[in-house]
Amino acid sequence: MSSHPQTSHEQVPLNLYRVSSPGVARVVSNVRLTPPMHDDVRHIVLDLDGLDYHFLEGQSLGVLSPGTDGKGHANKLRLYSIASTRLGDDRRGRSASLCVKRVVYLDPATGEERHGVASNFLSDLNPGDPVAVTGPVGKMFLLPADPSSNLILFATGTGIAPYRAFLKRIYEELPAWTGQVWLYFGVRTGAECLYREELDAFRRFPGYRVAYAFSREQQTADGRRMYVQHRMIDDLDELYPLLVREDTYLYICGLRGMEGGIFDALETYTPGEVPWPALNRIMHKSGRLHVETY
Length: 294
Hints:
- By secondary structure, this protein is of the alpha/beta class.
- It has 2 domains: 9-137, Translation factors (Elongation Factor Tu (Ef-tu), domain 3, Beta Barrel), CATH 2.40.30; 150-293, Nucleotide-binding domain of ferredoxin-NADP reductase (FNR) module (Rossmann fold, 3-Layer(aba) Sandwich).
- Helix content is 21%, strand content 27%.
- The strands form 3 sheets. It has a 6-stranded antiparallel β-sheet with strand order 4-3-8-1-2-5, covered by helices on one side. It has a 5-stranded parallel β-sheet with strand order 11-10-9-12-13.
- The longest helix is centred in the middle third of the chain and has 13 residues, at 161-173.
């Protein structure tokens, strides 16, 4: 069994393109994933043809939006988790997909409607439009090298992006994978459950499990909103013994702070031979715990 959760760092592609010398990708497609009257979330495929751009599942791609901010400075770099495998959605290895939520909010000081620069730039793109890209970046949120590894995945919202890449890599490109994969995915409503058809289709593979938490439509037994940690609590008698194993890795991706609810729920599991505070330290030290929230 590999003692590290990812490919050796020497083999991880990093910063092939930088802010000072970005690459130019082109939009292949821009498809809305959510229905009207819900947050606008897009699946955007970028053509990397002509670039020396390659990446691994779990890495992020940088986007440089054109124009300047209110102070005349170039718009800041924004990073997006790549939602496709290294082979891209077309399996040719020359594209990368992003899952982008259009950010619209009210300025707390003025009450004016504000628009996230990068997310709105990307959401408005059409096929053929150019996009200045950097990266890839990230070497800590990658898949384990050992195909017998077990994965426990937690996601909220667009945090599902790297897991889409993980699952497609495991079940479409790595026939040798034998480890279990458990996914807990939380969104507000069933209509906003991104990639649900794809996620459900993987149920045909033994060892794969998926559970959804729709916080605005489902409640716990005591009447609270349903979140991913509540779905996990129902499975703790099976999940915790799996988590203790040295070949199991825990990933958390989504809204900042979501890890607190998950960790608190794990701490309530008293039958475990290793209590969660100690297991948390063990998993951190061994590189089996990965948190990427924003």
